[in-house]
Every structure is written in C-alpha cells, then in structure tokens.
C-alpha cells in the first residue's frame, strides 16, 4: 500500500512511532518488512502508535513507564531494551524506569524485575557509550 493510500490513523501512528522510537529505528523496521509482515506492521502502527500512544490522556513519559513495566513483566527482553532506548524521546528518566521496575518486582515477580534491571543497565551503558 502506498503512503497516499494509508488513512489518517496510519499517518498519525507513523508520526508518533517516529517521534518515540526515532527515525533510524523506524526506517530500519520499514526497510526490513516483507509482504508477509506488512499487514502486521500496519496494524501496530495504527493500533499501538495511533490508537494508544497518540491519545492525549496521559503523557508519553507515563506511557513509556507503563510500557516498560508491562514488557518487563511479560519478559519481552528486546522490547524492553527498545523502549528504554526510546525513553530519551519520551521524557521517562532513569529514575522513572527504576520506579517502574520496582513495581514489576512487587506485582509481577522479583525474577522478572531482576532480569529487566539487567537489561536496563546494559541498555543505559550502550546509550552512554554512544553519547560518548
């Protein structure tokens, strides 16, 4: 589907997705998509990035914290790291992320939070190394 054939939700979702994840990440994802997974990419762009992330009711900082906590509880390691990297664009601080992971420890289990803390430390180290 060409860009001109996408609806308003897709366009809004793509703008939010780029704002949160960064152009480089989205460009890599777009370049890697295939005929098989294009419908999935369109779904997450419209559903997650437009219907949810673009809502005005809570801030992107808050959404970032919620998302990281949920992904940590679900043990979605790559997604945890991706959303921690995205926190530089959402305003969620390292203190915010630590607090979210403390909630994970209590409500989803210490092992899940412990593992997510390791991912967070590694991801912060990578961010710091790139910043230089």
TrEMBL record:
SUPFAM superfamilies: AhpD-like
Domain called Carboxymuconolactone decarboxylase-like: residue spans: 40-121
Record has Thylakoid as a keyword: no
Pfam families recorded: CMD
Any one Gene Ontology molecular-function term assigned to this protein's record: 4-carboxymuconolactone decarboxylase activity
Keyword Nucleotide-binding set for record: no
EC number: 4.1.1.44
Protein name as annotated: 4-carboxymuconolactone decarboxylase
UniProt entry keywords in alphabetical sequence: Lyase
InterPro entries found in the cross-reference section: 4CMD/NDH-1_regulator, AhpD-like, CMD-like, Decarb_PcaC
